[in-house]
Amino acid sequence: MSLVGAKVLRKEDPNLITGRGQFVDDLSPAGTAYVAFVRSNEAHGRITNVDTAEAVAMQGVLAVWTASDVADLPGLGVPGLERPLLAADKVRFVGESIAVVVAETRAQAVDAAEAVLVDIDPLPASPTIQSAIAEGAAPLDENVGANVIFMLPIEDPDIDPALAAAPRRLSTRMENNRCVPTPIETNVVLADWGPSGLTLWATHQAPHHLRNTVATYFGLAQDTTRVITPDVGGGFGAKINFTPDLFLVPALSRALRRPVKYTQTRSENVLMMYHGRAQEVDIDVGFDDDGSLLALKVDVYQDNGAYADPTGMGLPALTTTMAAGCYKIPKVAVGWKNILTNATPVAAYRGAGRPEAAFYIERIVDMVADELGLDPVEIRRRNFIPEDEFPYATHSEIAVYDSGNFAGALDELLNIMDYPALVQEKAAAIDDPTKPLLGIGFATWLEIAAFGPPGALEGFGHLASWESGQVRVQPDGSAIIYTGASPHGQGTVTTLAQIAADELGIDFDKISVRHGDTATVVQGIGTMGSRATAVAGESVKQAATKVTEKAKLIAAHLLEANPEDIEVNDDAFSVKGTPAKSVPWSEVAWKSFQNLELPEGVDPGSLESTVHNAPPNFSFPSGAYGCVVEIDKMSGDTRVRDMYLVDDCGTVINPLLAEGQVHGGVAQGIAQALYEKMEYDANGQPLTATLVDYLVPGAPDLPTYTSSRTTTVTPNNSLGAKGIGESGSVGAPPAVVNAAVDALSHLGVRHINMPLTPQKIFSLLHEGGA
Amino acid sequence: MIPAAFEYKKAGSADEAIALLTEYGDEAKLLAGGHSLLPLMKLRLARPEVLIDIGNVADLSYVREDGDHIAVGALTRHRDVERSDVLRSALPVLAHVASTVGDPQVRNRGTIGGSIVHGDPASDLPSVVLATGATLVVRGSGGQREIAAADFFVDFLETAVAADELLTEIKFPKSNGAGWSFQKFNRRAQDWAIVGATVVGGDNPGVSLVNMGSKPELSVAATEAMASGASPSDVGAAAADGAANPPEDLSANVAYRRHLARSLVERAVAEASN
Q1: Residues A219-237: pLDDT tens digits?
Q2: Is A768's pLDDT higher than 80?
Q3: What is the 3 state secondary structure string of A517-556?
Q4: Nearest Cβ partner for B252 among A695, A697, A759
Q5: Does the A13-123+185-233+239-272 domain belong in CATH 3.90.1170.50?
Q6: Are A621 and A648 in contact (CB under 8 A)?
Q7: Does the domain at residues A276-450+617-767 carry the CATH identifier 3.30.365.10?
Q8: Could you report the predicted ipTM of this complex, rounded to two decimals?
Q9: Do B251 and A637 touch (CB under 8 A)?
Q10: Cβ atoms A204, A151 nearer than 8 A
Q11: Residue A675 and residue B187: Cβ atoms within 8 Å?
């Protein structure tokens, strides 16, 4: 029986649910010293004095470092726009680290950090895109002189004529709210720099990338630099980034000659872990009276926060690459600006640029439908890229859509949701004082995933874009799989074991998957961009196939048969047509290490293989989501009542895990639509710096989902899997907002920026005369 | 995350706690369930030099009928209030409101007295104290005294309990079957109210508001309107207009808060009158 496609329970869970998981903060080698930071309480200002005298003299304090102590350590990030490890002359956002204290205990470190006195002369702050690009805004970086640090102008000479030639036109500006990633585990860094090298335990999504970067940074050899990412409690993209603590903590360990650990508090996490989204966009669309989209112009303003991160600067490229969504639009032109603001830096957050793109185009399609009096379902059908036009070259050379069936997913959505009945219910609710307003929203979205084609990640500083998979059969016939795609909650250990079990014919329970240690995993890139299954899974599959072929040589020798006649099933090799002639995997494995048992030409220990798989193209998961919101007429409170989800991620390895990914992503999407936004006041002071004010919804606040799927395989790997990690966060926000706008459309509402807070909706209800 | 250093004292009885309070005065804070004080200490927004732990003073945890009222010990956990058969029949509004505080973990640790003496305008339980016209029993080195609910809440996080006093008991009048309603508007299931309202009907009606001022507030105008038989919408209007100083935050500006107060009180009065 094939395990690919089976609802297998997670191998990870017994450890985690019995409290036996091992996270970085669980580790404290003997002699560990503890770190606390002194942080800026100003969003923009000049540091005039840092007085560490009192702190240095406090009990247990081992070191207090300021910028001058790290002067020989280079800054991080984009050349010319580096972020210093500790702020030197200026601070640029609230929370930026100014000094670091190391002490014998964490409490001593926190007490001493409080005793460091910092004087800052405030400068005018620009915490938002609009304030940062306003005339006369103080530049964050005087060397650059302007807050727009990169600009790709829209230069296509044909776009404006195409828009002008369209029978109808619509222009709009939209926002995509700044979100805090909020994984359950904050960032934790533990470094032990001894005579034989550096060991760094970190909460990170890309251990080898971190190892390579840290080694280069300190001029260490990679063989003596070891990065371990044990259990990692969520990351959502925010644990790809290279934040200063990853370099500062090793430097402290080197200087103090003992292990040093930094455990981020939740309050620090909200301010220090890089945020996501934070865009504005200007969009022009040309269309005809039938609702055919003819031309699209998209100009993105990306808030990069106080320091440019390479991934953060790449976000608008991803947004504009996916600007046309699943629609055939003859003319598309895009551009963007990267902008520094006095706020937390912005980088990848689940979906990274694609949720923004889906939000814009799905809102635009609804606006056009509304303008023409067309049903939102109908306008989508009229503009879908037809099923027979794949591969489909888009306006972007990065994106050649691999495969898709957008109409099929929409059909399935209408199959699981009773749209006509909902339309009736909506109409009846408008004037019924006992009923909330009802709104129905659609999003037929797609995204770019399986980051793995050569060139996909090198530009972000990665060694390459492939992912590694290694299979090593043990003498007893069990197998260990090593993957470079170190997971942080996805269940990759289970899916890779399923894939390997099918290829090896070894029992699922005799397959372990190891990851997250550069000393044991050959090489690796990491878990990001919905790549683990499609890229790493394919590596494991290929490696397992190679091992099985080699094992068949030994089995054939033992069974005195031809290798071509050997098949493997249920932990045993047998001769085709003669099932009684068989030898168990355990015997083949055992003898594979014994010279005297091997056929000529087969060396002992041959049952292992390593594959670095780089797919020829990205994959493009898609889906059709339907959302029903209820709006309380008294308060404006907006809740998702029903969420209908049709996902197409190609082949599903484990339906439980795929559904779990969708549920989590949709929860984050609903959260962005209804609850979450990092807010700053005009001086750059964060207003939502704790989880009391920054509203992360919980299970009681979310609906039960109704889900289904369609399957359009990708030709890019032999599994046919496209990736599912980010889908929900891409499709949910436009579905929710489209539903809310639908609920309020009788009042003339055409667009609402996220999050849809009760007060905001209440004011729309009243401005509309309700 | 880590509080500033403090001295820890464990009180075995109410008298011991009062003796320690008398000794340390303003420098000391009482620790009961810890669900208001400890988060403030971890953020270093509160830095008491001495913490007097009264968590094990068992004789202050009770619910008992006492003539025309019900006496609730100040150290009774929310969970025990929520599940008390006595309260469920004689004062269901209190059992219900206790069930809406935080989540089960919070309710299993937090105490009714701790919530009340914290004096947070956004807390739910003070609104029951006010709407029911409860009496608060405090004990100090100078002996025991009783404070009427209307005189108890003084200002933001400030009550009439003196530095050397301990809240020991809350005496709630029995509801005798009078209608009641608690309305809470919040965004997430376990959040504090953006605005809340407690309404008690019967012969001694009461209307109180959550998060509509700098302290827990009895709406005198709305209570009077209700006593005179005004319509639910008029009582709602009286409550909204009568709130002197509604806070303004990201969730709600003053106008929206007044609108919510008006609507919630109107709804609560209608429900309490049924």
Answers
A1: 999 999 999 999 999 999 9
A2: no
A3: ECCCCCCCCCCCCCCHHHHHHHHHHHHHHHHHHHHHHHHH
A4: A759
A5: yes
A6: yes
A7: yes
A8: 0.95
A9: no
A10: no
A11: yes
